[in-house]
Amino acid sequence: MLPIGPEHYMQEHNWEKVRWFGPQEKWGDPCKMRVDLIMYMDALRHYLGHPIHVNSGWRETGDRHPSGGAMDGYIQGVCLIDQFLLLERYPDHDKILGLGLYPHWNTPGVHIDMVKPGRWLAYTECIGKDEQGKPIYKQKYTALSWESIKKYCL
Ligand SMILES: [Zn+2]
Prior knowledge:
Helix content is 23%, strand content 27%. The chain has helices at residues 12-15, 35-48, 80-89, 146-153, and strands spanning 52-56, 70-75, 98-102, 109-113, 118-129, 135-143. A 6-stranded mixed β-sheet has the order 1-2-4-3-5-6, with helices on one face. A hairpin with a 6-residue loop joins β3 and β4 (109-113). Bound molecules: zinc ion. Residues 65, 70, 72, 111 line the site of zinc ion (ZN).
């Protein structure tokens, strides 16, 4: 990965140039988000004409989010398969390296990153029951494919 200096992270003057997102959204820490990701998301949002809800941006844990080059969210009013198709049809889509689908979220959505290549689908599996007899679910991952889309998203 390329070395990234402080100028590659969103500062106040960078946020002023963003049309469709703001630092008050759930980025974790808006100053730790990478400029290239936010500018990409802003251009994508403009192109799509649909609001994009931010669930999460920078965070300490995971292998992609701590760099500030990843976000989780959803395109409002669009089912997950259509979110995926809109992202893949966007002319500049090859700038997205990592893309994950999350059909089990309250509002199904996507992970997008500029950190490293990967395509996956997340799902949950019951791994037992707690003391009250409630099922315990663990998030798991599988390759994004027509088979996994049919199994978990349709
Ligand atoms: Zn994520």
